[in-house]
Amino acid sequence: MLCLLKKYIFPLLVLFVASCGGGGGGGSSLAGGGIGGTGITSGTITGFGSVFVNGVEFETDGSSFDVDDNIGTDQDVLGLGMVVTITGSINPDGVTGTALSILYDDEVEGPIAADPVEDADGVTKTFTVLGITVIVDRNTTVFSGTDYDSLAMDDIVEVSGFFDGTGALLATRLEKEGRLTLGTSRVEIRGNVRAFNGTDTFLLDGITVMFDGSTDLSEVPGGVIDDGQFVEVTGTLETPTFITALRIELESEGFDDDEDRVSIQGLVTDFTGIGSFMVNGQPVDASAAEFEPASLAASLDNNASVEVSGSIVSGVLQAVEVEQRGGEIKIIAPVTTFDAGAGWVNVSVVTGQPDIRVQTDSQTQFEDERDGMDDCSLSSLPTLIPGDGLIVEGFINGDSGVLASSIKCDDLEKIELRGPLDAASGDSTNGTVKILGVMIATNVGTDFEDGNDAPISGTSFFGTVSPGDPVEFQDKLPANGIADEVEIE
């Protein structure tokens, strides 16, 4: 799983590196509420200048950096969306601290085995890299050296992200390194050694690895390979399923020791109840935890994006807090007003309907996809011109507002809103759908889809949905307040 730790460094921190300054609002309760002091923090870096993660601004002056085994002292070696490992201290204010060491190591690097397959909504693409299923998201994955639309078979890509319950890697960052040349292209893969022949070959997830006396085994105790070891292999791809290893490193799959102060962000897997689940391979017991929002205690399930904090005791994270960090809400709409000091921005989905208040905090990830622009943050929103838009993902904060997990500045191609249904009525001829207090009309030209993306009639849609059901509507530009598409999510 994602919680893959180098024993000789320190335990896991997953940081999602974002593109600009941290969001407004207060610091994370997970980072500061009872977690202050030296420890381990796991979460998304939501800004640079220093490094923002889990609501804490970590200073990096004097920090050491290990990026793909290259040692340095400059945070410029970090990139957006990288999965890294850090130890550091958090000040008594709970919102500032100092990073002592930061480690980056991608999850997999290799060729895209076949042309990516896009979902029906045109939002995600799925492909495999060295036998690992990778899923990229048009709106949330950070791309470098390529973009969502340009991904192709035989691109050599380096991927960081979170593994879900099926073992698929949900990419937070994808960087194109070039094109495949067998016998030359450098690749990296992690996994458990299987079918070791006792001499010079073994399998990693169906990939044959060969090593010899020239292979660097300095990070394998005694230089001895054995079945069951969790290793990272760096080497040359000779065929689509055969690697000549240049370096093999033994890694750990979890925390080796008890830890007093830990905060981890990631996806929930192996969920059997709030007293037993995993986050990035780390066992968690949240039976005594405080949940934010409180409703999360009842709705928590596999693949939920959360942040958990507490202490590691006998290998189990005894959580004191569990906070939702996912994106059940999605909004694509233009900004109307904002207050940088208070950390909120209003967006207009339908002219004449109430704006939606989007609250940010120091964990909100900002990214800029506008041509020629690279400074998207709450304080820079005045640089937007009328018609520029925001792509917001987050979750309901209170009765009607939205707390943003991510905000992307981008040129608008459509208006979109996804969230729990307030009310709906109508038929295939005329109707209305209300989400987050925003009413949008439907008519004979509206396309309706069920939860499997299959077309259905408007009459069937209105006869099926109930308040609370997840529903999405889209209004193509130029928007007229009438839905072009309505879909049950």
Account of the 3D structure:
With 489 residues, this protein is mainly beta. The chain has four domains: 1-105 and 256-325, no CATH class; 186-250, OB fold (Dihydrolipoamide Acetyltransferase, E2P) (Beta Barrel), CATH 2.40.50; 329-412, Beta Barrel (OB fold (Dihydrolipoamide Acetyltransferase, E2P)), CATH 2.40.50; 416-488, OB fold (Dihydrolipoamide Acetyltransferase, E2P), CATH 2.40.50. Strands 9, 10, 11, 12, 13, 14 and 15 form a seven-stranded mixed β-sheet that branches. A hairpin with an 8-residue loop joins β39 and β40.
Summarize the structure in short.
With 489 residues, this protein is mainly beta. The protein has three helices and 40 strands. The chain has four domains: 175 residues, no CATH class; 65 residues, OB fold (Dihydrolipoamide Acetyltransferase, E2P) (Beta Barrel); 84 residues, OB fold (Dihydrolipoamide Acetyltransferase, E2P) (Beta Barrel); 73 residues, Nucleic acid-binding proteins (OB fold (Dihydrolipoamide Acetyltransferase, E2P)), CATH 2.40.50.140.
